[in-house]
Amino acid sequence: MAADENQIRDLLQRWAEAVHAGDLETVLVRHANDIVMFDVPPPEDGVRGLDAYRDTWPPFFEWQRAGAAFEILTLDITSGEDVAYAWALLRCGTSEELEREPDRRLRLTVGLRREQGTWVVAHEHHSFTDRS
User: Fold this and answer.
1) What's the rounded Cα separation, in Å, for the pair 19 and 110?
2) In this structure, are residues 62 and 47 in contact, taking their beta carbons and an 8 Å threshold?
3) pLDDT tens string 15-72
Protein backbone atom coordinates (compact mmCIF):
# COMPACT_ATOMS: atom_id res chain seq x y z
CA MET A 1 0.00 0.00 0.00
CA ALA A 2 2.97 2.35 0.40
CA ALA A 3 3.20 2.80 -3.38
CA ASP A 4 -0.50 3.72 -3.53
CA GLU A 5 -0.11 6.17 -0.67
CA ASN A 6 2.88 7.77 -2.41
CA GLN A 7 0.87 8.13 -5.64
CA ILE A 8 -1.99 9.74 -3.72
CA ARG A 9 0.36 12.05 -1.81
CA ASP A 10 1.89 13.15 -5.12
CA LEU A 11 -1.57 13.71 -6.65
CA LEU A 12 -2.71 15.86 -3.71
CA GLN A 13 0.54 17.84 -3.50
CA ARG A 14 0.34 18.62 -7.23
CA TRP A 15 -3.33 19.59 -6.79
CA ALA A 16 -2.49 21.99 -3.93
CA GLU A 17 0.37 23.54 -5.91
CA ALA A 18 -1.95 24.00 -8.90
CA VAL A 19 -4.60 25.60 -6.68
CA HIS A 20 -2.03 28.02 -5.30
CA ALA A 21 -0.78 28.80 -8.83
CA GLY A 22 -4.32 29.31 -10.19
CA ASP A 23 -3.71 26.54 -12.76
CA LEU A 24 -7.25 25.31 -13.41
CA GLU A 25 -6.37 22.56 -15.88
CA THR A 26 -3.93 20.96 -13.43
CA VAL A 27 -6.43 21.35 -10.56
CA LEU A 28 -8.88 19.22 -12.58
CA VAL A 29 -6.40 16.44 -13.40
CA ARG A 30 -7.36 13.04 -11.97
CA HIS A 31 -10.75 14.15 -10.68
CA ALA A 32 -13.72 11.89 -11.36
CA ASN A 33 -16.41 13.04 -13.78
CA ASP A 34 -18.96 12.49 -11.00
CA ILE A 35 -17.01 14.27 -8.25
CA VAL A 36 -18.96 15.63 -5.29
CA MET A 37 -17.48 18.56 -3.37
CA PHE A 38 -18.64 20.26 -0.20
CA ASP A 39 -16.83 23.57 0.06
CA VAL A 40 -16.57 26.52 2.43
CA PRO A 41 -18.70 28.87 0.26
CA PRO A 42 -22.21 27.93 -0.91
CA PRO A 43 -23.98 26.03 -2.20
CA GLU A 44 -24.63 24.27 1.10
CA ASP A 45 -25.64 21.03 -0.65
CA GLY A 46 -22.33 20.90 -2.54
CA VAL A 47 -21.46 20.68 -6.20
CA ARG A 48 -21.77 17.57 -8.32
CA GLY A 49 -19.91 16.75 -11.49
CA LEU A 50 -16.66 17.90 -13.00
CA ASP A 51 -18.20 20.89 -14.80
CA ALA A 52 -19.72 22.25 -11.57
CA TYR A 53 -16.44 21.58 -9.74
CA ARG A 54 -14.54 23.48 -12.46
CA ASP A 55 -16.88 26.47 -12.06
CA THR A 56 -16.04 26.85 -8.34
CA TRP A 57 -12.38 27.64 -8.88
CA PRO A 58 -12.21 31.02 -10.74
CA PRO A 59 -13.62 33.03 -7.77
CA PHE A 60 -11.15 31.31 -5.44
CA PHE A 61 -8.26 32.08 -7.79
CA GLU A 62 -9.37 35.73 -7.89
CA TRP A 63 -9.36 35.89 -4.08
CA GLN A 64 -6.00 34.15 -3.94
CA ARG A 65 -4.39 36.67 -6.31
CA ALA A 66 -4.67 39.11 -3.40
CA GLY A 67 -1.73 37.22 -1.87
CA ALA A 68 -3.43 34.38 -0.03
CA ALA A 69 -1.58 31.26 1.08
CA PHE A 70 -2.72 27.72 0.20
CA GLU A 71 -0.34 25.07 1.43
CA ILE A 72 -0.66 21.59 2.88
CA LEU A 73 0.84 21.37 6.37
CA THR A 74 -0.33 17.88 7.38
CA LEU A 75 -1.44 15.05 5.11
CA ASP A 76 -2.49 11.56 6.17
CA ILE A 77 -3.52 8.84 3.69
CA THR A 78 -5.18 5.47 4.10
CA SER A 79 -5.54 3.30 1.02
CA GLY A 80 -7.17 -0.01 0.23
CA GLU A 81 -7.35 -2.01 -2.97
CA ASP A 82 -9.76 0.30 -4.84
CA VAL A 83 -10.67 3.12 -2.44
CA ALA A 84 -8.68 5.52 -0.30
CA TYR A 85 -9.17 8.59 1.78
CA ALA A 86 -6.93 11.38 2.91
CA TRP A 87 -7.22 14.22 5.34
CA ALA A 88 -5.13 17.32 5.50
CA LEU A 89 -4.72 20.59 7.32
CA LEU A 90 -3.83 23.56 5.16
CA ARG A 91 -2.65 27.08 5.76
CA CYS A 92 -5.20 29.06 3.77
CA GLY A 93 -5.83 32.77 4.00
CA THR A 94 -4.61 36.24 3.19
CA SER A 95 -1.66 37.60 5.14
CA GLU A 96 -4.09 39.74 7.17
CA GLU A 97 -6.28 36.73 8.01
CA LEU A 98 -3.28 34.61 8.97
CA GLU A 99 -1.83 37.41 11.08
CA ARG A 100 -5.14 37.76 12.92
CA GLU A 101 -5.56 33.97 13.34
CA PRO A 102 -2.16 32.30 12.79
CA ASP A 103 -3.32 28.85 13.93
CA ARG A 104 -6.50 28.69 11.84
CA ARG A 105 -6.46 25.77 9.39
CA LEU A 106 -8.51 24.72 6.41
CA ARG A 107 -9.61 21.11 6.89
CA LEU A 108 -9.62 18.91 3.80
CA THR A 109 -10.99 15.39 3.43
CA VAL A 110 -10.61 13.61 0.09
CA GLY A 111 -12.17 10.35 -1.05
CA LEU A 112 -10.46 8.54 -3.93
CA ARG A 113 -11.15 5.49 -6.03
CA ARG A 114 -9.10 3.56 -8.50
CA GLU A 115 -10.33 3.85 -12.10
CA GLN A 116 -8.53 1.77 -14.71
CA GLY A 117 -5.49 1.48 -12.45
CA THR A 118 -5.29 5.21 -11.61
CA TRP A 119 -6.32 7.00 -8.44
CA VAL A 120 -8.93 9.73 -8.99
CA VAL A 121 -10.55 12.15 -6.57
CA ALA A 122 -14.24 11.33 -6.21
CA HIS A 123 -15.03 13.51 -3.19
CA GLU A 124 -13.63 16.65 -1.56
CA HIS A 125 -14.78 18.33 1.61
CA HIS A 126 -13.24 21.66 2.66
CA SER A 127 -14.15 23.38 5.93
CA PHE A 128 -13.11 25.83 8.58
CA THR A 129 -14.31 25.80 12.17
CA ASP A 130 -17.10 28.29 12.84
CA ARG A 131 -15.59 31.18 14.74
CA SER A 132 -18.66 33.38 15.00
Assistant:
1) 15
2) no
3) 999 999 999 999 999 999 999 999 998 888 999 999 999 999 999 999 988 889 999 9
Would you list the domain boundaries of the chain? Answer: 2-127
Which CATH number is correct for 2-127, 3.30.70.100, 3.60.10.10, 3.40.50.200, 3.10.450.50?
A: 3.10.450.50
Tell me if the pTM is above 0.90: yes
Distance, in Å, from the CA atom of 132 to the CA atom of 94, rounded to the nearest integer, reads 19
> Which of 110, 112, 108 lies closest to 92 in space, CA to CA?
108
One-character DSSP codes across 48-62: ESHHHHHHHHHHHHH
pLDDT tens string 82-99? 999 999 999 999 999 999
E strand or H helix that includes residue 16:
helix 2-21
